[in-house]
Amino acid sequence: MMSLPDLLHYSSQKATTGACCQCLPALCFRNEIPARSQSQDHPDIGPKQAKLQRRDMTESPDAESHFLEQLGQRVRTMRSLRGMSRKVLAKVSGISERYIAQLEGGKGNVSIVLLRRVSDAMGAHVEDLIPSTEPAPDWQMFRELLRKASPGQITRAKEALTGGAATAHHAPFCGIALIGLRGAGKSTLGRILAKKIGWSFVELNKEIEQQNGLSVAEIIALYGLEGFRRMEQVALQQLLARKEWMVLATGGGIVSEPLTFDQILGSFYTIWLKAEPEEHMARVRRQGDLRPMADDRSAMAELRNILVSREPLYARANAVVDTAGLSVDAAAARLIEAVRPVLQDDARSFGLHSVAL
């Protein structure tokens, strides 16, 4: 007969062994450690059928490699959209730069916890990094809308998608918005355009700073990129509530926030100010502003990656003005020509009186 301590030890060991055995099939799924066969659990299924089922459930190495490559591409694209260097992402996430390089190269044996840290550092949702077949180019924006929607809004969205009675809402026209990478000339050219047509000129980042009493750098340091994007959306809403025509200069990364950018596109005649990467970098250096790539020897490579990742979003603008190689006066003249359809030819469709240029 066992003593009481021996009996307790035996019971504990048996319970632990039982729990481990119950988890063993899941643990062995990838490592081929012998586990109880499926045919033992289901007498109607033979060993051969069970083997075929396990083979069907297991992805081929090629499929897994493709998944990791897509995951790495998504992380790299999201990082570029956010305007973050690899070094900055490593610092904010607390993950080594080498590991992030492996992850972006499709060679990272990533855990869900580390992936969440990477997504949090970029102010993104972890599910936006998981490769999938997305049915529409605006799918990320739709998901963001659903995350923030009330039950009533979701009901109306269902009605609209299924041909119900929901009616579309058209935002009122608020003016001209300039988008583009830092150094594109949005502030300089925006002021010239606003003075020419007699509208107010607004820099969205300046509005954010005034409303919160902090610089953009301080906001990001204190609240992270996600906190800054929330404040950006609030500042835009308050600008739209003024119901006055304006020339709006936006931040370069506004296109990476689906809801905010969609609101810009729906409320403004949007113009992408475009330049060569070298010109962007030279202008930013002259301004003494290198964030978020300060002290990064690969700043030019990062700038090119950012531009490549954002180009499809910038291209959604109503018009493009290429300022490459132009003086300020020449670029301003080209911008004024680009807004002529809004201010003269199509003024009525925008609810405007024709403006002399």
Structure in words:
- It is a single chain.
- The protein has 357 residues and is of the alpha/beta class.
- Helices cover 59% and strands 7% of the residues.
- The protein is built from 17 helices and five strands.
- Strands 2-3-1-4-5 form a five-stranded parallel β-sheet, with helices on both faces.
- Helix 12 packs parallel to helix 13.
- The chain starts with a helix and ends in a 12-residue tail after the last helix.
- 25% of the residues are buried.
Topology:
Elements: H1 4-31, H2 38-41, H3 47-57, H4 61-81, H5 86-93, H6 97-104, H7 112-121, H8 139-148, H9 151-161, E1 175-179, H10 186-197, E2 200-203, H11 204-212, H12 216-241, E3 246-249, H13 258-267, E4 268-274, H14 277-286, H15 299-314, E5 319-322, H16 328-338, H17 340-345
Parallel strand pairs: 1-3, 1-4, 2-3, 4-5
Helix pairs in contact: 4-15, 5-7, 10-16, 11-12, 12-13
